[in-house]
Description:
The chain is α+β, with helices and mostly antiparallel strands. The protein has helices spanning 6-19, 24-29, 48-51, 112-115, and strands at 35-43, 54-60, 63-65, 68-70, 73-78, 81-88, 99-107, 118-124, 127-129, 132-134, 137-142, 145-152.
Amino acid sequence: MLKHSYKQMLWLVMCLGFLFSVPASAQSSSVNGKYFQLKQTLTCERDRAKYGNFSDYGYWKGGNWCGQRGKKGYWVWVAPTWYVWAGKTPPHASANGKYTNLVQTLYCPRDRKKYGTHSDYGYWKGGNWCGQRGQAGYWVWSHPNWFVWGNVR
Length: 153
């Protein structure tokens, strides 16, 4: 049985996060792809006492929070920051769980003509797409967004 030190495991997690261009806090703040399209972040150290290190709070209509104006959306707490997401990732956007670790979401409504409402395109090395820079990964089309995933389950 292999034994790894805490530092070795931490190094591995950091390297994987770098490879997929998604920091560990962003990955956990999206609850591993449950939410997409980051709208806002708010730092609020005092919320650690109530929410601990992590909380998937869910939808909130927005308003004043911690001396700031919070936007409506899906709120996730990864101490000491709140992450506000535009939407919940529909199950078919991950090919019904086939893919994990959301890397990127690209808004591209014009692709509906070619791909319909849903398409599991598979792996693409990335490049320019729909006026944006698409990351390497497993691409799934769910109108009007492309969801780019880092791993196959």
